[in-house]
Structures are given as structure tokens and as C-alpha cells.
């Protein structure tokens, strides 16, 4: 049999509306973006002991572990030659087993960075869960991961990472089982999102599920606390600038800040949250209209969206989750008449700037230059890119 090679990409995401207010019961909406993570799995003919080579380029991580040890430690009969029956494991005990394995195989595991530890834990958790009842792995394999996303800055790098890994493992398994599918079907996507959610739990404890859903399916996902993320049945292709303040922020701290503010000003903060909810609902309606085949008054709709982005930002700023760098970016966008808001928890992280289709490229270039000269990182990308995809290799 030929040596197997699989290449998969998955998008990152931004929260368009509903950050913070989602925690108080309001609807939020997230959207995939055109910046992607890529995973390549390649089988390598065995010359001696087979190994799994983990190469996470964005983390400067290159680890090699003996395949035999992984198989002995995690794999269990009954062995199957089908990819179709996902294995259920108890999350906490499987993760504890993964942690024990890493401490055993890599005695300095506790000394590497927390970011690297998280990625290695997730990797082995997913690998052993997906391949754990198969006896199809004999050769060495390399798993290489790269990303266009900034890691740890609210644009869904962890979900994009997990979705890519699961999708690549699943496709690898399918090929090993003799299946020649060249696309992911709905049941594959549902499984990819569900398995990636387990990795999100490793990274975040109690994730909402909005990130893994958005990075798997692409496009727009709405979400209410305590509910299941809902895939909106329309696509968008809006151009944005994604601006990285390079100011690190702590989501938990910002969430606590808002909660303390609400304790003291329950009605006022309640009204702000409700206003954010109204903005989300109106924005979804406009996005839905913009996704129709024949759209009337496009420019007017973009002006309306711009107002909603600006209003949403100011409401978030009133909660104390903006930052001078975010305000600076907004001021630059305002000079050119563009709408702009923080995305995610705020306090730094990223801002998004809405670019209507009529925007003049020279104007966009000038704005980008202004922002770069001020020290921000700027990416020109689109909202609503495809979800996880198989690439031909
Ligand atoms: N390309 C990647 N390669 C390896 N690990 C990654 C990659 N992207 C993200 N991660 C993992 O995801 C974690 C980032 O999660 P998080 O802090 O939630 O950031 P984000 O908001 O970007 O998802 C990192 O600590 C790292 O463990
Ligand atoms: C502030 C919050 O609403 C969004 C956090 O977004 P991010 O992880 O900073 O992208 C928190 C949450 O929804 O869990």
C-alpha cells in the first residue's frame, strides 16, 4: 500500500457581536475568517522503531515519541478496520492517562511552556481516542502544524488547531480503512466538531462550543448560553481588516471585571447587555439580507452594519473592556469612515474593521499603513471562509 499523506486546513474565527453579553443570556454571533491553520500528516517508511513526529512549527516544538509505547499504553481491543464508530471515553480519566503518559515518556514535561504542554496534551488525547481501537498503524508518521493565526489572541487558534488535527486523523484513518472519500460529509463534520470540543475543554475548561462549531463548519454561528451553537443557514463574504493590538489580555479577568460592575450597577449594566443583544439580532438580519442572491441597497446595509459595529464597541467600552490601543485603532478607522469594534474579551487582543465593497483600495492601503506605522499587525481577510477542508496532495 502507498504511504499515506493527508493535508487539512481549518479557519480561525472572530466574535462579531455578543462578547460579554452572551454570558448574561443574550445571543452572540461568531464567523469564520480567511486565516487558516494547516496540518499535514505523512506516513514514513519504517527503517527502525516507528515514531510519531510532532512538529508544531508555530510553537517551535519538535517531539518524537515511539509509536509502540503509545499503542501499548492506550490502544485496546476490540480492534476494528472501520472509522465509523467513534469511541466514547471519560474526558477526565482519559486526560489523566494522557498526562501520566507524557510525564513518563518525557521526564521534563512539566518544564516546557504551558502553551506547548496544552498542545501536546490535546494531540495525544485526540490521537489515542481516534486511533485507539485500530491496529492499522505500523509506519512512522509526521504530523506538521502551521497557522496564519496569532496564537492565544481570541481568533480561535485553539479550535482551529483541534479541528485540523481531528480532521487529519479522521481522513488518515479513512484512507487506512480503504475509503477514498475526498470530502468531509455532514456526519464527519459533526464528529470533527465534537472531538475538537474535547480538546477545547483541555485548553479552556468550560468552552461554549461556538469556536469548534465555527472552525468546523465555517460561516456564521449564533449562540446562547446553555444552548447548542446554531449554524446559520447563509454564507457571508465580507472583507475586514483584522488588527492585532499586540496587547495581551486575560479573558477571565475581563469577565470578572464586568461581573463586578454588574454587581454594583445591575440595572444599567443589564440595559447595556440587552442593547448588545438587540445589536446582534439586527446584525444577523442584515447579514442574512446581504447573503441573498439579489441584494438591494448594499451600501445602505453596510452603513447600517458599520453603525452597529461602532455602537457595539462603545457599549463594550462602557463596561470597561476597551483599551487605549483599541481606541487608537478605532480613531484611525474613523478618519476613513470605517466601522470598527473590539472582538472577543477586549482589554487588548484584536479589533475588526468593516470594509464595504465600494471601498477604494488606496484608502484601505493608507489605513493599513497608518495602523502598521503605529505598531499594530494588520491582516486583510474575509469573514465567512469555508470550514475545515481537505486539500489535494
Ligand atoms: N498552530 C498551533 N500549533 C500548536 N498549538 C496551537 C496552535 N494554535 C493554537 N494552539 C494551542 O491553542 C492554545 C491557544 O488557545 P487560546 O489561548 O484559547 O487562544 P485562541 O483564542 O487563539 O484560541 C495555545 O496555548 C496552544 O496550546
Ligand atoms: C468575553 C467572552 O464573551 C468572549 C471571550 O472571547 P475570546 O476568548 O477573548 O475570544 C467570554 C465567553 O463568551 O466565554
From TrEMBL:
Residues covered by the GHMP kinase N-terminal domain: 132-218
GO cellular component, one term: cytosol
GO biological process, one term: isopentenyl diphosphate biosynthetic process, mevalonate pathway
UniProt catalytic activity: (R)-mevalonate + ATP = (R)-5-phosphomevalonate + ADP + H(+)
Domain of life: Eukaryota
EC number(s) on file: 2.7.1.36
Molecular function via GO: ATP binding; metal ion binding; mevalonate kinase activity
Pathway: Isoprenoid biosynthesis; isopentenyl diphosphate biosynthesis via mevalonate pathway; isopentenyl diphosphate from (R)-mevalonate: step 1/3
Subcellular location: Cytoplasm
Keywords noted in UniProt: ATP-binding, Cytoplasm, Kinase, Lipid biosynthesis, Lipid metabolism, Magnesium, Metal-binding, Nucleotide-binding, Steroid biosynthesis, Steroid metabolism, Sterol biosynthesis, Sterol metabolism, Transferase
Location of the GHMP kinase C-terminal domain: 292-362
Similarity annotation: Belongs to the GHMP kinase family. Mevalonate kinase subfamily.
Protein name: Mevalonate kinase
The organism of origin for this protein: Danaus chrysippus (African queen)
Lineage: Eukaryota, Metazoa, Ecdysozoa, Arthropoda, Hexapoda
